[in-house]
Each structure stands twice: as C-alpha cells, then as structure tokens.
Amino acid sequence: MIPPMKPALFPTVPIAATFPDAVTAEADPSVPAPVVFDDAKPGRCDAAPGTRGSRPMTAAFGKSIAAVFLAAVAFALPGCRQNDSDSGGDVRGGAASVPGLSETDLINPVGTLKLAIRERRWEKAWTVTGYLLREDSGAASEENGPSPSFEADTWALMGRAAHETGHLQEAAEYLCRACEVESFATPMRVRQAVIALVGVGRFYDGLAFLERAIAAQPDQTENRRWLFDLYAGADDRISAIPHGKQLIRSRLFDVELLVTLSNTEMRRLEADPLEEMVQRNPDDLRPRLGTAKSEFDDGDYDEAIKILREITSKHPDYHPAQAILGQALAADGRSGEVEQWAAEQTAGIEDYPGYWIAIGDWARGRGDLESALRAFGQATQCPDPDVVQVWTRLATLLPQINGSKQQIPEATVQAVNERAKQLSRFRQLKDRFERTGKISRAIALDIAQTLQQLGRLWESEAWASIAMTLAEDDAVDVAGFRKELLSELSAETPWQVRQGHPEFAPFYVKFPMPEIEKVVSSSRPERNAPVDASDSPRMTAGEVMPSWKMSDQAEARHLRYFGRTSDTLDQPGIMLYETLGCGGGTIDFDRDGWEDLYLVAAGGTPPAADSEPNELFRNVDGDFQPVAASAGIDDRGFGQGVAVGDANEDGFPDLLVLNYGPNRLYINNGDGTFRDASGLMASGPADEWSSSGAIADVDGDGLSDLVIVNYCEGLEPVTRTCPMKGTDQLRSCTPVLFAGAADRFLANDGSGGYPDATTRWNAKPDRNGRGLGIVIGNMDGNQGNEIFIANDMTNNHYYSRVPTESFALAESAMVRGIGADDRGIAQGSMGIATGDLDRDGDFDLYVTNFNGEYNTLHLQASSGIWRDRTAAENLTRPTIPLVGFGTEAIDMDNDGDLELVITNGHVDLFSRGDEIAMYDQPLQLFRRAGSQGYQSVDVDSLGDYFAKRHVGRSLWTIDANRDGQVDLAVTHQTEPVALLINETESNANWIRLELHGRRSSRDAIGSVVSVQTTDGPHLAFRVSGDGYQCSNESILQLGLGDAADERVDISVTWPDGITENFSEIPTRTQTSLVQQAR
After folding, report:
1. Taking the model in full, what pTM does it have?
2. DSSP alpha helices (H): ranges in 438-582?
C-alpha cells in the first residue's frame, strides 16, 4: 500500500542529450524502448494507496534512482547494434593508413567526426575516433605528454560514436574524460557519464565519479542529490548522509529526501536493478547488497548471510556489507561466526552502527551487559546515531546495569528512554504520513515537533516547511511553530543539538569494550577460512512429526455455530471492519465442573444492534446445548471478543462482551441466568470499536477491574473503501488510514459500578494504538499486575504501576523490549501467548503479526526486560508468509514443555498481479526442543482439520471432555467454530489447579504457581485477557512430564505478594487452592 508517487526527482534524459546539441539526431526507431523501472517489488509494495500490503513500503527515493536506471538501460541499447567484434578491432590499434577515410576527411578529422554523426554514419564516426586517438596518442608520446588532450565536446563526440557502434565501455570512458577535461563544469554531462557507467554495470565507478565531480564543483546540487539517492539506494547510508545534510542545510529538499535521510530501518526499494548491475559486471558483487538487505529485513538470515559472504569474500573492505553481515550473524545467534567476522574487520567499520550492534548483541548474548552497553553507546557516536534499535537496547540495558548501584545518573537513564520512545514515534508518524498520501499538514507538523524534541532542528524546520505547502488545517499552527523554530536556527546550529540532551553524554565509557573488540585489527587476517558454526543454536530445516492427535468434534458434540462479520467473507471486497472476525471464551457459568463456551457474532452494521445473536453453549457431559436466550445474554451487537471473569467478586464468572458499538457487561446471577449490568460501567463513544478485553484487579485493591482494548476511531472504517491499484475491485483499507482509539480502564468502585479511571490512573500512552490483543498478569515477578496490549501497526503497550502515593500506571513497552521487534519496528500485532516458554522461571510472550513480518518471541532477560529471541529459537522464517491471529502456549502431551499453536488467515481474498493471495492458511504448531529452540510440527499428521487450510481468527483453550488434556476452540471467517479435542496418547503426569483468592480478587489474576516434582519445578501464571478476542479456561493445566509423583508440593504467590505452600496435592486430577483469609 504505497502512496501516490511524485514525478521523478530528475527526469530521464534522452541518450542523445549525452552529446553536444549540434550533433543531436532523432532517435533510431529500430531501438526498442527501455524497460520501465518498477518501484514496486512484487508482493511487497504493490497494493493501492490506502490498502494493506504485506508491510509498510514506500518508493521514497525510488523515482530518482529510476531515472538513472532508465537511462542506463537505454544507454545499453546502441543505435546500430554492433558489438565490439563488429567494429574492426581496437580503435587505437592498426596501421597509419585509415581505410574508409579520404585525405580530405583527415584534413579536419574533428569536423569529419561531427559530419559523420550528423549523417548517422556511425561506422565512419567510429573510424575517425580511432584515427584521432591514435594521432593524439602518438603526438603525446613524442612530446612526452601525459595523455590525449581533446576538448570536452570532442570527447563527447567520440563517446557518441562509441555508443552507437556498441562500444559501451569506451563510450563511458570518453564521457568521463569529457567531464574531467572541463573540471566537471557541465552538470548534465556529469550525470550522463554516470548513466553511461551504470549502463555497463560500473555502478560504484559511477558513485566514485560523482564524488569527484562534487568535490570539484560543490555547488552542483542536482548532482549531489543524485549521489545521495544512489548511495541510499545501494544501502550505504554512511556515505549518503553528508550529502543529504548538505542539501537540507542548503534548503534543497523534498519529502522523498527527508524520508530517505531518516530511514534507518528497512530497505524500501526492489533490488532487481542492482542485480542487473551484477549481470552486466560480474566482477563487482557489491550491488547485491540490496538483495541481501531485503532478505535481512525479511528475517531470512540464512539467505542474507549467504549473499553477504559472497560480497565480502570478493570485496572484504566494503563496510556497508560487512556491517549488515555482522548484524545478521548476531541476530541468528552465530556467536562463533561473529567472533571470526569481527577479527576480519578493517579501519572504517567503526563508523557503521551495524558493527556496534553486532558486537553489542554478541556481548549481550554472553551475559556481558556492561560491554554490550559500551558497544551500543559507541553506536550513538556514529555518523548515523539515531538507529532506533540502538536506543531501545540502551534503554533496556540501563535498568539491568544500574540496579541498586545507580552507576548511571537517573536523568541520563530517563533521557535515553525518552529518545527511544521519540524515535519510535517518529518512525510511526512518517509511516502514517506516507500511507495517507503525504497530504496531512497535521502529521507533517507532528513529525517536525518530534524532531525538535530530538534536537534535530534542521530536519524539523524542513518538515515544517513541507507542512506549509500542504492543505490548510485550522487545527494546527504550522506558521507559528516554524517561526519559533527559525529563531533557534543559525548557520552555526549543529545538525544534532546536544545541549539539553544528556543521552549523548559519554556515560558508557566507564564500561569496558566487548572482548571481541580486542581481536579487531586494522590488518586483515587470512580470509575465507572455514567457519565454525558449532555453537549455533539453529537446527536443521524440516518439520517433525510427533505422535500427537487432535480432531474437530464440534459437530459430533453439537457445537454448531458460525459467528461471522459478514455473509460474503468468501468473496473479494471485504471492508476493514469485517476483517477481524469474532471470538469467544471458556466459562463454567453454572459451576458444574464442565467448561462451557460463549461465542460472539456480528454480521450487521456497526454500531447498530442488528447482528446475529451471540450464543452460550452449556457443556453437559461433553455435549453442548445452546442456552443464550434463556440465560439472557444473546446480545446482537457487532460482536468482536469476550472477556470472562468474576467482575463483582461473588464467585460466579461474568461476561464482558466487546462490540463495534456499545459493549455489554453481563453479571452471572448464579442460577443459570445473567443480568445486563452495562449501565454500571462508564460508557465510551457510541461508535467505540472494541476488540478484546480483560477482567482483573489492576490497582491491587482486591476488586476486579475492567480493561477495554479499542481498535480504530469512529465509523469511517465502516464507510471508507479502498480499491485495488488500477482496478475497481475493493480491498480492506490499511488500518493506518484511521486514527487509533484510546483503550479504557474502568475501576471497580466497590459498590457495583465501574467508572472510567483511564485518566486517574495515567493509563495514557504517548500515542494511541490500534489494540487487538491483551494479557494481564504478573509479568515482571514483582507484586502487582501488568498489562500488555498488542497493537496493529503501532508499538505495543505495556503498563506497570509506578511508586506514587496514589495508584498510577506508566507505559514503557519500547524500553522494556516488547514494544516492537528486535529492530524497533512496530508490527501488525494481534494474538498473544504467554507462559514460561523457555523454562527459566519467568514470564515470556509470543505475539502474532501480519504477513511479511515474523511472529515475535519475547523471552524475559531480567525482571521486566525482554529480548526478541525469535531467530535464535528458529521461529522467524516459518511465520513470515502468514497472517497470524489467535495463539496460545499449550502442553500438547503434558511433557512439561509448552508448544506454540497459531491460527492463521489473511484479511481479504484478493490477487496482486500474478500473485494470488493465500486467504485460507494452515494452522501452525511449534514444539520446543530444549536448548535447541523450536521445531515446526508437520500438522498434517495431527488430523483432518490440520490437513486443511482455514481463515482462522480467535483461538483459546478448554478441556471440553475433562480428560486432563488441553483442547482448543477456533473461530473462522468462512466456516463454523471448530472444537479440537486432544486425542494424544501420553503417559506423562499432569495436574490441574483452580485458584481462589480471598485477600486478593476471587479470580486471583496475577498469581504465580510453582509445582515441585522429582524432575524439578514447573511454573504457571494466572492471567486474564489471554490474547486475541478470547478467554481461556480459568484452570491452570501443568504437564509434569516423566515425574512419577502421585502427590506434589505447590507454592502459590498470590497477587498481594504473599506466598503460601500446599503439600501433598494429588496429581492426575483437578484441585482447588484457596488463599488464606486475612
């Protein structure tokens, strides 16, 4: 979904313009037109403006690079189509006599050359060129002259002759000589020489030539812009940045330049034209960096490393490739290879942030946090200091290092945190500005203000200037802001103002360099030595086939329900509001020990209550009976999700139904019916689009509160359409077109009411997200609950309490490592799975994302600090092609290790060019293999449901048949709900625990359970929300593996922080554990 393109920054110049106007001839009609350079990489940025593609992409600087490549392609198509062998040999060789030329021709050979070109007699022109070069070379030799000495126009004429006879290398050389003779005085001629060099695959010679031209003629701003764009397109930001800065200081900028200069994240251009350079000049592999960077951005580290090793093997001192290679090796967990890579680096690599990121990640992986901090600190001194992942890494490391020692001043810690947040905000604002067509004055001003806060005043003023050119918006005062900003600017203003920015203080120098730095030498050791990858945690490719079985028994158990957002979800043209699907939850509403199901539906038009009714299925000995109407909970709002919990602390589970429109709170009467208590909770806007929710004690007063997660603001998502590029076919719009809606926190007042406490609790992030999933529980190991919210295309949110007299929350996801992925890039996040996923005794998260992104595994490194360990745990590549929605961490066979299960499905049914989108997608299951990470399971072997593809949405747990194994419920867009009964044969031990709070809230959300067995401890967390639009069963199921214990000891740390021990609790059964009274 790319915004409309602006015209090319530099128009494609006809090849004839390469040569003097006096000899310009009309184009030869026999020459085919050059192939049009396509900015859109198939499958990546080919969606229409406003539609949701695989990832946020933009052409940015694409059109200006396109101008070069278009002309370069044309340059490679000579007029008379002769190759070198057709021309009669070396132009400088041969006897003194010149066949084909008369004595008259030789009286004034330059004039003869001009006439031959005017008359399009290309072979004669080439012959004259040879004569001129031989004669001049001989004269220079007799006079001991250094080189031929033609005027610039003569060199250009000879270049024209060379080009038209197929001597493209010579044509490039002669054009370069034409520029050199006149000290690069003609900007157009310089650019055409660059085109000629690129046309024969000498891309980097073209860059070097432009550098010489700018050094000789620094005021040639158009050539400087070409140089900036070409460097940026080749992924050499360090070389591009000085030229971009100079252009902005000279007030010669546009949106494309501003976006490109600040793009530290992902490559946004296709790499095919650069690959063409390698085809034309196989001796230079450096252009392949574009492809390698794209693979790196896509998380395919194997392929990226393969390409980068090819590049660096041939060009060992090419630092842009070396820096990305180091990052890829570190990201892939290949620590031994990182060490060898570091030992091979040469002087100059230290200017590249990627170098410091690589060795910082290497140190962090070894547990050497202080050295890691030093490396990331060094990265902030590079010419490209504002790489968001550098600052987020610093922000997560500082609390771990400071601890109780307070080695770094608190003001510095807060400044680092703030910069990490502001940089993330800046990136998201740019993304929204581009996706909405680059027309919003308000967003442009917001970008300018963010840059001002970062101390980047020159860029701030440039963005403010851009905002001044956009459509008027009475709500924003751009002129006033710019006037104030100009008062701060002068010629002496540095690019990055450091006064008042303590984050740039050298606080890190007190810590040692990583040990790996000691082996870096300015002299390169022997290269291409065998690589020792024995320390890599990666496993061989392929899927495993465990003896697990699950079958869809919904129909057999009379669970017949199809909650859907539309009746036409199997046809193209789905609106955004119809894409999220409908969820459900597990609830034992009658407390008979058999878990029931509540399922929501939609199908109407938000916010009206005209949808299909929700349904409650009572579980009667494993058979499901619909009872919603008699229970009084057949809501007809546009249903999205449901939260289950004891909202009024009476011992019976209640329901919070989330709608696009008014939400509903149903209080369980304890007699099989519910009463509508929606009027007791603070109402939101009538058009509030709620997706998920949770019932849990947030403020620690022993009473359950309500948290409502909201998606987009208003009703525009219901009415706005987004056609496919070049067609009338409608597609779901990108969510970025719509503002994120604020989430709401409703406090239990102890009298049955739930007033809005969002402001009172300070539960307001820097920027509203588009919330889709939620989990509440004790995540950091300290007393009290935290809230994690998965947001779509904006940073995730994490709320924790702050030490104040009155209860308050603070949002800090980015600085805790769970606001985005490892690169600091926000994803299209939806589902959330939680648990002690690596069995190291703490709380981890797994978050599903959109296709083109990988689902993210966040493993907790220390209290309240997480690391993206997706690649190290082998989970990156399998999820990139799919759109992940619901996910849970379950123990399929009770062996004590949690598996990850994900239901996938695209948001729409559509095609992009020759690519047919995969609307229905396979469910995925990943099995943990100890220290070797995760293995993808061949799900086809699990049963018929898994062998088919589905358009999955919500997924949650239930033990529908009370056999001590975890079952699953799954909703879909194009088929009824599935009830997947776990039929795995396992002799492993297990235990099921139901917690009841007394001092704490009844549901005891935030409790941590540790079961002690002869094989070691097993940990479980009592959480609420459970991810995407759903609620899991409230019972904690723990697989105990091979432990033969018939009875076990259990410790429970309740939400109030007090730990109680329970002895001799029987296994292979369900037990209720009740907190002691005050």
Report:
1. 0.86
2. 441-454, 457-468, 478-486
pLDDT 10s digits, 1001-1040? 999 999 999 999 999 999 999 999 999 999 999 999 999 9
Burial of 1012: CB neighbours in 10 Å, binned 0-12, 13-18, 19+:
middle
- CB 481 within 8 Å of CB 464: yes
Give percent above pLDDT 70 in the chain.
Answer: 86
Tell me which residue of 423, 477, 432, 485 sits closest to 450, measured CA to CA: 423
Residue among 656, 692, 662, 700 at smallest CA distance from 769 = 692
Q: Which residues pair with 857 in a beta bridge?
A: 846
* Rg, C-alpha atoms of the chain: 33
SS (H, E, C) 93-133: CCCCCCCCCCHHHHHCHHHHHHHHHHCCCHHHHHHHHHHHH
For residues 470 and 439, the answer to whether their CB atoms sit within 8 Å is yes
Tens-digit pLDDT profile for residues 783-823: 999 999 999 999 999 999 998 889 999 999 999 999 999 88
In 3D space, the residue among 861, 885, 1049 whose CA is nearest the CA of residue 970 turns out to be 885
Q: Given this model, what pLDDT does residue 69 score?
A: 63
* Phi, psi dihedral angles at 290 (to 5 degrees): -60, -45
In the CATH hierarchy, which top-level class contains the domain 285-351? mainly alpha
Average pLDDT, the chain: 88
Question: What distance in Å separates the CA atoms of residue 322 and residue 324, rounded to the nearest whole number?
Answer: 6
Alpha helices in 535-607 (DSSP H): none
Question: What sign does the dihedral 156-162-164-167 (CA atoms) show?
Answer: negative
Exposure string over 907-919, b if 16+ CB within 10 A, otherwise e = bbbbebeeeebbb
Between 282-296, 440-454, 512-526, 760-774, the lowest mean confidence (pLDDT) is in 512-526
193, two tokens:
């020489």
Do 829 and 820 contact (CB within 8 A), yes or no? Answer: no
Give tens-digit pLDDT for 40-81.
332 222 333 344 543 333 333 445 566 666 666 566 655 444
Residue 299: strand, helix, or coil: coil
Q: How far apart are CA 981 and CA 991, in angstroms?
A: 18
Peptide bond into 878 cis (omega under 30): no
Domain 101-136+149-182, CATH:
1.25.40.10
Cα dihedral across residues 721, 723, 724, 725: positive or negative: negative
Nearest to 872 by CA among 362, 292, 325: 362
Q: Is 790 helix (H, G, I), strand (E, B) or coil?
A: strand
Are the C-beta atoms of 719 and 746 separated by less than 8 Å? no
User: Residue 518: its pLDDT value, please?
Assistant: 56
Alpha helices in 384-456 (DSSP H): 388-402, 410-435, 441-454
User: Dihedral angle at the C-alpha atoms of 161, 163, 169, 173, nearest 10 degrees?
Assistant: 50
Q: Which residues contact 97 (CB under 8 A, 6 or more apart)?
A: none
Helices then strands (H, E): number in the chain?
26, 40
Find out whether 530 and 336 touch, Cβ atoms under 8 Å: no
Residue count (the chain): 1078
Could you say which of 3.40.50.10490, 3.30.310.50, 2.130.10.10, 3.40.50.300 is the CATH number of the domain covering 564-990? 2.130.10.10
Please state, in angstroms and rounded to a whole number, the distance separating the CA atoms of residues 705 and 755: 10
On the question of pLDDT at 117 being above 90, the answer is: yes
Q: Are strands 1030-1031 and 584-587 parallel, antiparallel or unpaired?
A: parallel
Whether a cis peptide bond, with omega within 30° of 0, leads into 607 is: yes
- What is the DSSP secondary-structure string of 151-184? -HHHHHHHHHHHHHTT-HHHHHHHHHHHHHHTTT
Tokens for 646, please give them.
């004891």
Query: With contact defined as beta carbons under 8 Å apart, do 1027 and 831 qualify?
Result: yes
CB contact at 8 A, 493 and 457: yes
- Residue 504: alpha-carbon gap to chain centroid: 27
